[in-house]
């Protein structure tokens, strides 16, 4: 969820302007929840995760990409500009998704390292 907040705020927030209840939901999902999760994560016991867990974390964006691209085939809605085949080639989309998975792997390994450091201090 930390990556949802980061990716949204770095890449997507400037591309649209939600209004009304959609704005409320947008702020809750992309701003409040990542901060709440970070606080939860900092307060919980650490050092129980493994490097395998970091690799598993990288599967989530890939699974969501498969879902988003498959759904788009039926309703022509693609959730993100970086995986929209009406604007990009499938080679470009694959490159973007590889970058996203690598970013998730790096982020997960970073969080795992921090978790291990925090666990060793308790």
Summarize the structure.
The protein is mainly alpha-helical and about 120 residues long. Helix content is about 75%, strand content about 0%.
Q: If you average the pLDDT, what whole number results?
A: 90
Overall spatial form: globular
Approximate helicity band: over 70%
The secondary-structure class comes to mainly alpha
Uncertain spans, ≥5 residues at pLDDT below 50?
A: none
Strand content: under 5%
Tell me the number of strands: 0
First and last CA, distance:
25 Å
The helix/strand series, from N terminus to C terminus, equals HHHHH
Number of domains: 2
- Estimated radius of gyration: 17 Å
The main pleated sheet reads as: none
Compute the number of helices: 5
Descriptive labels:
about 120 residues; about 75% helix; mainly alpha; globular
What's the structural blueprint in terms of helices and strands?
Elements: H1 2-12, H2 20-43, H3 51-57, H4 59-75, H5 90-120
Helix pairs in contact: 1-2, 3-5, 4-5
Notes on the structure:
The protein is mostly helical and 122 residues long. It has 2 domains: 1-44; 48-122. It has helices spanning 2-12, 20-43, 51-57, 59-75, 90-120. It is globular, with a radius of gyration of 17 Å. The chain starts with a helix and ends with a helix. The model has no long low-confidence stretch (mean pLDDT 90).
